[in-house]
């Protein structure tokens, strides 16, 4: 599934696609702070054309990562069907953390607003992740495996923090797994 784009003229659609491809390369090379001017140059469009399609850096990054986030969400939806709710939540959070730590710019592009009390319904990457993660968390909480005072926004901010800290590590995937594992032990009820 790709980001929903309103119908456009053929040349406008080509420009959108070229900008998105150029942004994918630049973000992979330079992270979330990739130069918008360089993205426009690489796409063969002017800065105004880039901003017409993507009014903000955040909107451009959302488009760059949308398909990969959708794949993580599809995996999360499958995991909601498993019987072991805590393991399913932990596995999905680990997948998300490793993805954020090993995909340059991903974690920074999805930094959440700590003042937000609930996910919006705007179809953004954050909303998709909060919806799927929320279902996994709720199931784990219903089984008594995870404390009830934990919110999905708490967990997504934790995932983001671990991803941001480990993104530049020599072995980002292992570092992300290790730090997330340490943090997740704190959300479980102690074994009786």
From TrEMBL:
Record-linked InterPro entries: Homeodomain-like_sf, HTH-type_TetR-like_transc_reg, HTH_TetR, Tet_transcr_reg_TetR-rel_C_sf, TetR_SbtR-like_C
Organism: Catenuloplanes atrovinosus
Ranges of the DNA-binding region feature: 35-54
Listed transmembrane segments: none
Annotated protein name in UniProt: AcrR family transcriptional regulator
SUPFAM superfamilies for the chain: Homeodomain-like, Tetracyclin repressor-like, C-terminal domain
Keywords, sorted A to Z: DNA-binding, Transcription, Transcription regulation
HTH tetR-type domain: residues covered: 13-72
Classification via Pfam families: TetR_C_43, TetR_N
GO MF annotation terms: DNA-binding transcription factor activity; transcription cis-regulatory region binding
């Amino acid at each position: 599934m790709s980001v929903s784009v309103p119908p456009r003229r053929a040349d406008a659609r080509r420009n959108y696609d070229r900008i998105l491809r150029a942004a994918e390369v630049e973000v992979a090379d330079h992270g979330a702070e990739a130069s918008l001017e360089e993205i426009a140059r690489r796409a063969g469009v002017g800065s105004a054309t880039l901003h017409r399609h993507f009014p903000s850096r955040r909107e451009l990054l959302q488009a760059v990562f949308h398909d990969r986030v959708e794949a993580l969400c599809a995996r999360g939806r499958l995991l909601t069907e498993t019987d072991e709710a805590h393991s399913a939540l932990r596995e999905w959070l680990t997948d998300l953390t490793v993805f954020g730590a090993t995909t340059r710019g991903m974690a920074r592009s999805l930094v959440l607003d700590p003042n937000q009390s609930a996910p919006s319904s705007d179809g953004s990457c954050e909303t998709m992740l909060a919806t799927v993660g929320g279902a996994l968390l709720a199931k784990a909480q219903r089984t008594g495996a995870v404390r009830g005072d934990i919110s999905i926004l708490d967990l997504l901010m934790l995932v983001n923090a671990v991803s941001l800290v480990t993104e530049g590590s020599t072995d980002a995937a292992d570092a992300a797994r290790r730090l997330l594992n340490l943090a997740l032990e704190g959300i479980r009820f102690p074994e009786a």
